[in-house]
Amino acid sequence: MDRIDSKLLTLLQEDASRTNADLAAEVGLSPSSCLRRIRRLKSAGVIDRVVALLNPAKAGRGMKAIVTVELERHGEQHMRRFLELAVMEPAVIQAYSVSGSTDAVLMLRLMDMDEFDTFCERLFRDRTNVARYYTMFVIRTAKETTVIPL
Amino acid sequence: MDRIDSKLLTLLQEDASRTNADLAAEVGLSPSSCLRRIRRLKSAGVIDRVVALLNPAKAGRGMKAIVTVELERHGEQHMRRFLELAVMEPAVIQAYSVSGSTDAVLMLRLMDMDEFDTFCERLFRDRTNVARYYTMFVIRTAKETTVIPL
DNA sequence: CTTGAAAAAAAGTGCCC
DNA sequence: GGGCACTTTTTTTCAAG
Q1: Lowest mean pLDDT among A68-72, B9-13, B28-32
Q2: Strand D: which positions are within 7 A of a protein CB?
């Protein structure tokens, strides 16, 4: 992982549709050397995958919410069971167990309030062991990047 | 935006490195028709961009934290000013203004506690108008996807 | 106006130095 | 790491529905 690898990763994190020849020129390498490095980074798992990112509003899911959850009964088993349920929900795009007074944090991508309503009824009803949950609706997104700084 | 477009978007959200011929076969279209659809989705902005996702741990940033922030002085100007500062930080991967008793939520990608320490000193010191902030460190990531369900 | 087939261009791949 | 021949893929063109 030298300077050139970092540069390549930064470029690919911003735009993975660039051609190998392009990338090679940018980092000052021959196309074959450049390709070798990229393949190495992929097989080493540093590059996990290449994906298309959609415009949420244009994909019909412009609404976003952050939910903090406190469980009724704590402990590893209960946490695991709750997260298993949360993960199954398509609206849940991020699910974490966290330190502090809250047990879990969920990030939701929703179509509208109706979807939020049915989601809550499903995930936060009696049998799911949720004591309390607090919802913060996203008003403005100032930054949202998948780029990991190197 | 018919059934085939949705299928294409779902496939591309999961793996954008698939070849056009592959995608065409999957959705039952000729390569040329398939390419036309993908290009249309790109120019319409439904597909925002194609990026490489890194393995955070292998990229040296395995630590994650969620920070809720309450500002000293509220209002549009102050919120905007705070978010401008937050957005400039490379460790901040998501920054939102939200509804409820907290004003903003930040998602951080960090190398270690030292980075968190210097980050807090920089962003949450007196002059930045932050009244209170509460940090939740991510213990376990149960789900983390960029896929918007269609 | 949309579709698919085939040619042309471009990119990716593997081998040798 | 670089250069070159080979393969695959993308992209354009064009004829047909």
Answers
A1: B28-32
A2: 1-4, 8-13
